[in-house]
UniProtKB/TrEMBL annotation:
GO terms for biological process: glycine biosynthetic process, by transamination of glyoxylate. This is alanine--glyoxylate transaminase. The keyword Protease does not apply. The modification N6-(pyridoxal phosphate)lysine is found at K254. Substrate binds at R406. Residues 85-397 form the Aminotransferase class V domain. The lineage of its organism: Eukaryota, Fungi, Dikarya, Ascomycota, Pezizomycotina.
Length: 441
C-alpha cells in the first residue's frame, strides 16, 4: 500500500493549556485532531490508488498508524460491525448478541464459575473504578492501593471520592511495590480490598498477579483482590479462577480491539457476595450493581431487560472482536504479544535507549515506555514520527512526563504481520531519532 499521508499542515502555535493526560499529543498539533494527525477525508477517491496492496485496509481510508497504548488500530470486520442497522436494545436479535458477548467474556477472563458476574456498561475504563469504589467498598473501609504510576494514582483518587480510607504503597517511576512490603502492609491492618494496576499505561510496568493473589489469600484471606486490567486484558495472561481474583476491570479500546465506549469487567462470586452484604446502599446510580446485575444476568439468559440504554453498535463490534479472539487458543495470542514485545524492546536496546520499566520481569507486553536521549525533546520526536505516518504517545507520569515516549503494540498490529505496523514503527523511531540529531554512543 502506498505511504499514507496526513491531511493539513500543523499550526505554528500549540494550544494555550494542555492537561497532563494530553501530553501524548504532539505539541505542534491542535488538540481537537485525532491523536496529533488529521485523517484524510472519507470521500477520498481510492480509484487512483495502486491495486496491489500489502495491507488489508479495504474499509478504512489511508491514515497514520496509531501505536499508542490505546485506542489501538482496529480490524476491518470489527469496524464493519459498528455499521449495524439500528435495532431495539430489547429486541430478540440484539438480546441474543448481547447474551453471547457476556458469555464470551467468561472465556476471555478464563472463569467457569457460574457465580462470577460479567458487566458490559457504556463508558470508558475509568467507569470500572467507579463500579469497584461505589459497590464493593463502603465509606470508611480501608483499601490498600499498589501504586505503580499515573493510573494507580487515579484509582486511589476514585476510591477516596466514595469515602474509602486509602493507603497507597507507592513505587518509584518504572517500578512496582514488592511482595515483602505488601505482606508487611497487609499484616499491619485489615483491608477490605487491595487494588493493583496490572499494566500501568503511564510507565509500562507489569504487575504480577498470581503470586500477589497467593500472598493476599495467605496473609489477609478476607481482602478482595481487585485488578485494573485496562491495558492488560487480551494481551497479558489473566487466569481469573486459577489465580482467585475477585475483580478485573477493563475497556474495549485496548487489546480487546473494539472502539472506545465500553466498560468491561468481571467479578467473582465472593465479590458479588461482598456487594450483597453492604450495610449501606451503593454510592452511585448509573454504576450501581443493584441496578445492573439482574440486567446482565437476564441478557446472558437471552431475556430482554432494561435499566439504561446500551450501545447496540458497540456491542456488535465487541461481539466480533471476542469471536476473533476466541477463534484461537488464548495462549497463542499471549505468546504473539510477548514475541512482538521482545522484538521491540530489543530494538530499543539496540538504539542505546532505556525503558522506564527497567526490570525485564516487570515490563508489559502490550506497550513499551522509552526514555528519550537527553538531546532529544518529546516535542520534536513526536511530530517527526507523525510525518512518517506513525503515532506514538508522550509521557504522562508527572515526575518524568517530558522525558519519555510510549509505543503501544496490541491487537491487530501485532497479530497480523502483513500490516507491517511494528516494522514501520521501529524504522520510523530510528529515523526520527537520527533527524533529531541522536547518534548511539
Amino acid at each position: 500500500m502506498p505511504r499514507r499521508t496526513a491531511g493539513g499542515a500543523p499550526p505554528d502555535t500549540p494550544p494555550a493549556r494542555l492537561s497532563l493526560i494530553s501530553r501524548h499529543l504532539a505539541p505542534d498539533y491542535p488538540i481537537n485532531t485525532p491523536y496529533t494527525v488529521e485523517r484524510l477525508p472519507s470521500t477520498i477517491d481510492t480509484s487512483l490508488l495502486p491495486k496491489t496492496q500489502t495491507r488489508k485496509m479495504s474499509s478504512q481510508p489511508p491514515h497514520p498508524t496509531l501505536l499508542i497504548p490505546g485506542p489501538i488500530e482496529f480490524d476491518d470486520a470489527v469496524l464493519q460491525s459498528m455499521s449495524h442497522y439500528s435495532e431495539s436494545h430489547v429486541g430478540p436479535a440484539f438480546v441474543a448478541t448481547f447474551g453471547e458477548t457476556l458469555s464470551m467474556l467468561r472465556k476471555l477472563f478464563q472463569t467457569s464459575d457460574p457465580a462470577s458476574q460479567p458487566f458490559i456498561l457504556s463508558g470508558s475504563g475509568t467507569l470500572g473504578w467507579d463500579l469497584v469504589a461505589s459497590n464493593l467498598v463502603e465509606a470508611g473501609e480501608d483499601v490498600l492501593v499498589l501504586g505503580s504510576g499515573y493510573f494507580s494514582d487515579g484509582f486511589a483518587d476514585c476510591l477516596r471520592v466514595y469515602g474509602a480510607n486509602v493507603t497507597e504503597l507507592k513505587a518509584a517511576p518504572g517500578q512496582k511495590p514488592q511482595l515483602p512490603e505488601i505482606e508487611k502492609a497487609l499484616s499491619e491492618k485489615r483491608y477490605k480490598a487491595i487494588t493493583v494496576t496490572h499494566v500501568d499505561t503511564s510507565t509500562g510496568v507489569l504487575s504480577e498477579l498470581k503470586n500477589l493473589s497467593a500472598l493476599v489469600h495467605k496473609v489477609s484471606p478476607d481482602t478482595l483482590i481487585l485488578v485494573d486490567g485496562v491495558c492488560s486484558v487480551a494481551c497479558e495472561e489473566i487466569d481469573f479462577d486459577g489465580w482467585k481474583l475477585d475483580g478485573v476491570v477493563t475497556a474495549s479500546q485496548k487489546a480487546i480491539g473494539c472502539p472506545a465506549g465500553l466498560s468491561i469487567s468481571m467479578f467473582s462470586g465472593r465479590a458479588m457476595q461482598a456487594f450483597q452484604n453492604r450495610k449501606t446502599p451503593p454510592a452511585s446510580y448509573f454504576a450501581s450493581m443493584k441496578n445492573w446485575t439482574h440486567i446482565m444476568q437476564n441478557y446472558e439468559a437471552k431475556k430482554p431487560s432494561y435499566f439504561a440504554t446500551p450501545s447496540p453498535q458497540l456491542i456488535h463490534a465487541l461481539h466480533t472482536a471476542l469471536t476473533q479472539i476466541l477463534a484461537s487458543p488464548l495462549s497463542e495470542r499471549f505468546a504473539l504479544h510477548r514475541a512482538a514485545s521482545d522484538r521491540i524492546k530489543q530494538a530499543v536496546a539496540d538504539l542505546g535507549l532505556k525503558q522506564v520499566a527497567g526490570n525485564p520481569d516487570e515490563q508489559a507486553h502490550g506497550m513499551t515506555a522509552i526514555y528519550l536521549p537527553e538531546s532529544v525533546k518529546q516535542a520534536d520526536i513526536l511530530p517527526s514520527l507523525a510525518k512518517k505516518n506513525v503515532v506514538f504517545a508522550g509521557g504522562i507520569h508527572k515526575e518524568i512526563a517530558t522525558k519519555y515516549i510510549r509505543f503501544g503494540h496490541m491487537g491487530v498490529s501485532v497479530l497480523d504481520p502483513r500490516r507491517g505496523d511494528i516494522d514501520r514503527a521501529v524504522k520510523a523511531l530510528q529515523d526520527g531519532l537520527a533527524e533529531c540529531g541522536y547518534q548511539k554512543a
